[in-house]
TrEMBL record:
Organism of derivation: Edaphobacter aggregans
Pathway: Nitrogen metabolism; (S)-allantoin degradation; allantoate from (S)-allantoin: step 1/1
Entry's family note: Belongs to the metallo-dependent hydrolases superfamily. Allantoinase family.
Name assigned to this protein: allantoinase
Annotated Pfam families: Amidohydro_1 (PF01979)
Quaternary assembly: Homotetramer.
Signal peptide limits: none
């Protein structure tokens, strides 16, 4: 039986317009005028609530198998459904084993079985010594590779130095898949930290000084040079410093295949406003100053930054070291899967951006990065019927019951946001509706074939 969802604001790749979304068999069969719907279609009139493509997050740490006390497939995808996400691409670290071999990928798939409320897919890892595993991972179905140019915080996922990276890059280029790079180098951080031996590590300014812009700048310059030499797809994850934007823009103008993401925390918070001891706001690279934040927004506006993804990186509350408030001892990571979209919508209203911008930054651009834009990421003919119903007017306050991931702590607690997800649909079926998540997980792994 065909169903049609009507709205005054259907967000399509061709703009936001009054339309009907015709769905049959979990697939979008038409985006049309209501008068064009076939007889017998079951109508769902959403009025002025917006219909947008399901969100896609290409930077999520699900942490399963091995660290389900941090997060897990069931809890992460539950939070995703409540937040309007219909697809998550899982990072290859913080789980045990790390996704750096085909065997480890098989363990992750086993862990995911029957637990996912939304669709998911894996990134593989490029680490110090797994060069022989790069192409087998591609054949086994990873969508790309993640690497760290600096110690990542967990011992099992090793950083990769330039020599090791250059041994891996021909394989990565052959795969045709993107390399996602945590772009910070250790030397500038080590130099900065050496000057802070007697500093107050409860002070956010101390932490900010310990992760200078130069660490990102030097890493990005290195990766641009390697991208030029080895002709691979380069993706810069969680860009924090606006000082790198001109060089990245120039590299792309040169024709290099580079994409860039940033995250909600860099677009919302500012270093000047972070209190001492507020370790829930620790992340790496760090949240920088207010002027830097506005430059990131400008880069989204002009297309230099392609997308907004969460870098959802939860941990048990005790790892945030709230009792000491020391930034040097706290785990770095900010969880936001369930509230990222209303948060960015609130910021967009302040800055004059539209639902079309949101759909591009948080759905279609991440889908293109992951290579799944033939399946998801847009309300178009023959795509899967993954979409959200979004009330743009309702305001709410972030409280623990809104979070849905494993540990209900948040850097955004108490914030008033505008816009709420009324329903999330996966292949035409509701997975979140009326503040309730469906009882039966319906998600599965996506593949490029």
């Amino acid at each position: 039986m065909a169903h049609a969802f009507l709205s005054n604001r259907v967000v399509t790749p061709h703009g936001t317009q009054p339309a009907a979304l015709l769905i049959e068999g979990g697939i979008i069969r038409a985006v049309c005028r209501p008068s064009e719907l076939p007889a017998g279609t079951i109508i769902h009139d959403c009025g002025n609530d917006a219909i947008l493509p399901g969100l896609i997050d290409t930077h999520v740490h699900i942490n399963e198998p091995g660290r389900t006390e941090w997060e897990g497939f069931r809890t992460a995808t539950r939070a995703a459904a409540a937040g309007g996400y219909t697809t998550l691409i899982d990072m290859p670290l913080n789980c045990l084993p790390e996704t750096t071999t085909v065997e480890a990928l098989a363990a992750k798939r086993t862990a995911a079985q029957g637990q996912c409320f939304v669709d998911w897919a894996p990134w593989g890892g490029a680490v110090a010594d797994n060069q022989p595993h790069i192409l087998p991972l591609a054949r086994a179905g990873v969508l790309g590779y993640k690497c760290f140019l600096i110690y990542p915080g967990c011992d099992g996922f090793t950083m990769i130095d330039q020599q090791q990276l250059e041994a891996a890059l021909p394989h990565i280029a052959t795969s045709g898949l993107p390399l996602l790079v945590h772009a910070e180098l250790a030397a500038p951080i080590d130099r900065a930290t050496a000057t802070l031996q007697n500093a107050d590590w409860r002070s956010y300014s101390t932490y900010l000084q310990s992760r200078p812009d130069e660490a990102e700048l030097e890493a990005i310059r290195l990766m641009i040079r390697l991208c030029r030499q080895y002709k691979f797809r380069l993706h810069i994850v969680h860009l924090s410093t606006a000082l790198a934007l001109d060089e990245l823009k120039a590299a792309r103008a040169e024709g290099l295949p580079i994409t860039i993401e940033t995250c909600p925390h860099y677009l919302h918070f500012a270093a000047e406003d972070i209190p001492d001891g507020a370790t829930l706001l620790k992340c790496a690279p760090p949240i920088r100053n207010r002027a830097n934040r506005e430059s990131l927004w400008q880069a989204l506006s002009d297309g230099t930054i392609d997308m907004i993804v969460t870098d959802h990186s939860p941990c048990p509350p005790e790892m945030k070291r709230a009792e000491t408030g020391r930034f040097d001892q706290a785990w770095g990571g900010i969880a936001s899967l369930s509230i990222a979209f209303p948060l960015i919508h609130t910021e967009c209203i302040r800055r004059g951006f539209t639902l079309d911008h949101l759909a591009r930054w948080m759905s279609s651009a991440p889908a293109s990065l992951a290579g799944i834009n033939h399946i998801a990421g847009a309300l178009e003919l023959n795509r899967q019927a993954n979409f959200i119903i979004f009330d743009t007017e309702v305001e709410f306050t972030v409280t623990p019951d809104k979070l849905h991931y494993r540990h209900p702590i948040s850097a955004y607690m108490g914030e008033k946001l505008r816009g709420t997800i009324k329903a999330t649909y996966l292949r035409g079926k509701p997975i979140y509706q009326n503040e309730l998540i469906t009882d039966t997980p319906q998600g599965h792994e996506l593949t490029l074939s």
